[in-house]
Amino acid sequence: MQKKQHVKSLELLINARTMAEQHDWYKQLFLAQNNIGNNYYMLLDYGEALHQYLLSYTIATEFLDDQHEMIVLNNIAVVYSKEKEFVKANEYFHKAYVIANQHKDSLKIALYSMNLGALANDEHHLEKARTYLEKALIYTQRPEVTIPAQIGLCFNDLLAGNHLKARTKAFELLPTVDQEEHQDQRTELLTLIAKSFLEDNDLTQALQWTNTALEVQPNLETKIELFQYLSDIYFRLKSYNLAIQYRDSITISNNQLNTIKNGKLYESSEVKFQIQNYKEKLTEKEAKLKRERTMFYSVILAILFGIVLLVLIFKNQLTKNKQKALISQREQELVSLELEKEMADNALLLEKERSALLEQERLQSEIELKNQKILSKTIYQSGRNELLKDVLESLSNVPQLAQNGDLIENIQALKAHLKTDDDWSQYIRHFDAVNQGFIKKLTDKHPNLTTTDIRYISYVFMNLDTKEIATMLNITPAACRKRKERIEKRLQVPKGMSLNAYLLSI
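^ thats the sequence. predicted structure below, dont judge the formating
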């Protein structure tokens, strides 16, 4: 019956763990995993219980807070203490104890102090054990902690050799422990009293209290201990037959205990097998549900796809009909727009051409006006210079003035000034500025031209006729024509091309 209950409990816990894994409920997953470990512990399968607790520990450290962590740490320590691995048990009890202190959880501090004290008693570290057990009594007065802690202190006194003190405390505690609700604790006290009398060699009292402890119907492990006491007592009383009988009882009880443990291990293995089958069935069921769900969704998607496709075809046909009508209408509009655009482009082109011609005429007029100014200035400067030359020549020929040295010196300075090229340089700058660097382009192309040639060419470029140029250069028209011919040869003007046209092409 107990086996079936454990199997059913484990099935429910495995199912709870599966649900928790599916929904990412880490707290429920932790509790289910921890309870699975508790069930394996009850089945005496300490190895599997430890494995399940370690899984719980992983969940607690990765996904939950340290309060969950300390719960499973205590469970792991209990398993190690059952296996007599005191170093590891002490390590995990202490980790749980530290976390409880960090959170100032008085009940947990008391509980873990009590566990550390009991473990220290087992290791025979009596001072350390007493410190932890007394601390447990300070932090809480709840009976589930105080009674085991006080029993631990009694055992501590007994181990320290204070038999009377241990026995006195045990007698005081015994009436407070209910036989039905706390049978294990009552058995511990009775066993402690019996052992204290045995240590004091009070064999009559030791025999009485050992039998009293056996009447409580303790578990097999405690029975074996009590049978050992009875065997020792009867050996000391020299009742060897009874002593040997109780030795045989110890052997029988050990065999029973081994049988029970083997049975528990068998039950545990059977539970594991049934759980594995259950998990496989659950996996198969989930896979089947997944396939059915996938098929259902596939059918729904296919139907939806078909509906969407039909709607799209219908809408596409309507769209095509509308597009045909729109295309026809827009083709007519495009033809009209193209005609309008073409007319507008032509009008714009004509307007641009007209604007360009007007701009060109304006620029040409500006150039001609500026050239007229340059020409007027040149004519004025040329006439002025000629007049000055004549005046200076006349003054130089007057005998009365020839005796005046200062005057002669000034006349010579004026003549030297007239010979400078400042006016010509200024003329060139103005002319190039107005005519977009014409003279620079000309001299770059024909570097062998003289200043007189350049002056002549600039007059031709300004559309002056032969007579006007002859006047400007103070030569005859015939000489002006010959100079033109010589310049055309020097420029290598192509036959059939006028000098003006060639100059415009530079």
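The CA atoms of residues 306 and 312 lie 10 Å apart.
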